Amino acid sequence: RTLNNFKNLRGTVDLLPDQLIKWQNVEKIILEQLFRASIKEIRTPILEMTELFMRGIGEGTDVVSKEMYTFLDRGERSCTLRPEGTASVARALIQNGLSNKPPQKLWYMGPMFRYERPQAGRQRQFHQLGVEFVGLDSLRSDVEIITLAWDILEKLGIKELNLEINTLGDNNDRLNFQKEFLKWLEANKKFLDLDSQKRIEKNPLRILDTKNVQTKKILEDAPRLFDFLSEKSLERYLNIKEQLKLLKIPYVENLNLVRGLDYYTHTAFEITSGSLGSQSTVCGGGRYDNLISQMGGIETPAIGFAIGLERLILLAGKDLDKKRETDIYIVNKGFQAEILALNLSRKLRNYDLVTELDLSGASFSKQFKKANKFKSKSIIVIGHNEALKNEFIIRLFNEESIENMEETISFEDVMKLDNWLDKNLLLKRSF
Ligand code: ATP
Ligand code: MG
Questions:
Q1: Residue 281: is its pLDDT beyond 80?
Q2: Ligand 1 pocket by C-beta < 6 Å: which residues?
């Protein structure tokens, strides 16, 4: 087997420099939004004990039962590449004694792993941005989480967004519903699709979320979770909807919206976009008041969401693809000149400038051609003569301005360089 036979694993993707321009632009906007909202970053290991996800996410979920990358390490411990971020964040907070401290507003971003059938917008290694509010139970925290997700997507210029919300009630509401729902499911089992039949024992709530048209139709006559909500749960939900209205965040109520992970309570929401096709969900989130206590922490309410970055990139506006132009191309030739050029390029990094140092040692005309190809705004030339006098030539690099904008500057004359950059590239020194 020779090296060029190697390929990446199915469902994983190389992100190449040209693609990453958009990723970096998108990430920059997101991080700025999070920073301005005083949300702090948390980084947890990509690898965790398998137990964490079995208990945290729930063994009856698709993610845990079918999609996890699980293996034994050399010490025979069962390890899993994280399929999502919430369980790890909860573990880290409990373990570091932070879950019962004042409320935490946290974000994470990074790769997740699920063994799924790869398609557009669905990979085996993919990326999520998640936000978690831990220790907050006010309904305004639900509203803030939803608006945060909404605003991030809007800031990225994504149109055609649909927000769907639902409530899953508290534990009691769900238990009451489940009792009746199970009775109904048993009575109607033979009308359900196979997948749904299998879920009756493992995860009956998920049946509500089926994509099977036939089952969907039959479910219309099933008991509805909504009718089992306590007064309190119902009021909470109505208030959240009221606040969303006041904030002019458009939403659609979807009483069948349940999320694929077991830990959710009360508010559940998804944001979809019509332009994504069948993998339409870009953001999923909800409240998970039981997770932290289930995992051995002190009872702590929490709510969060996760955005799939691959789908986000597919949606984000074309203008985010734009590469930042080269400001200065440094043409240089000859031993002395090349050292000076290298040193000058280091100095130029004190400015908010994109510089390209030509390392080819090729002829001046070849280097000029390259500068042209780069569409550099300006050009610095250092040849043997300039090097001897310890100076360089700088000028704008478009045909009309070649003559009048040229300046010869001594390496010691920082002021003159400052002035030239200020006047011609509208740049000030950034240190
Ligand atoms: P789906 O119904 O599309 O499988 P999900 O309910 O499994 O989504 P969540 O666990 O809620 O997804 O994850 C949140 C978001 O992460 C999704 O809305 C989606 O944007 C993204 N996501 C989930 N799985 C994948 C995947 N395999 N590849 C790419 N993005 C994904
Ligand atoms: Mg899924």
A1: yes
A2: 84, 114, 116, 121-123, 126, 128, 260, 279, 281-284, 306, 308, 310-311
Single out the residue of 182, 181, 180, 171 nearest to residue 229, CA to CA: 171
Q: Which ligand is nearest to the CA of 124?
A: 1
Ligand 2 geometric centre to CA of 63 (Å): 7
Cβ atoms within 10 Å of 395's Cβ, excluding its own? 19
CA atoms within 13 A on the CB side of 277: 6
Give 304's contacts (C-beta < 8 A, 6+ positions apart).
86, 89, 130, 131, 132, 133, 145, 285, 286, 288
Q: Determine which residue's CA is closest to atom 25 belonging to ligand 1.
A: 122
pTM of the model: 0.91
Q: pLDDT value at position 206?
A: 83
User: What token pair was written down for 356?
Assistant: 């390209």
Residue type, 79: C
Range ranked top by mean pLDDT from 51-55, 156-160, 206-210: 51-55
Write the pLDDT tens digit of every residue in 153-176. Answer: 999 999 889 999 999 999 899 889
264: confidence class by pLDDT, cuts 50, 70, 90: confident
CA–CA separation, 304 and 283 (whole Å): 10
Distance between CA atoms of 17 and 62, rounded to whole angstroms? 34
Q: What is the DSSP string of 323-366?
A: PPPPSEEEEE-SHHHHHHHHHHHHHHTTBS--EEE--S---HHH
59-81 pLDDT tens trace: 888 899 899 999 999 999 999 99
Altogether, the residues listed in the chain come to a count of 431
Ligand closest in space to the Cα of 121: 1
Half-sphere exposure of 322 (CA within 13 A, CB side): 7
